[in-house]
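User: quick one, fold this
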Amino acid sequence: MFLLNLQSKIPINEQIQNQIRRFIENGILKPGDRLPSVRQLAVENGINPNTVARAYSELEKNGYVFNMPKKGVYVAEGAAGQNRETMIEHALRELKEQGVTKKQLLDVIDALYEEDKHA
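Assistant:
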């Protein structure tokens, strides 16, 4: 289910968060769906369980999932409907982490909106 790049500059817990958010936003994971247990995800990917727990905790803090003690972690209601600003912020953070500069982003945005004027 998860494709983690252990050599990436992006921390593993952020890779997990990004993938789960994408799965939710694209409808692959739906509200009420149970995520793999911390231990299961850690063992399957050869990573520390604390890394998975940190990712799940951050997703819970941002309203994407909820934890039911002794039962598991589930996709939260309304998680797919995260507001547009949150989606934009996550996309921009990912681009920033990949080395895209603010100037590059602004140039692309300006060009995109310039196209709209001529359409």
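User: anything notable?
Assistant: The beta strands are 65-68, 72-75.
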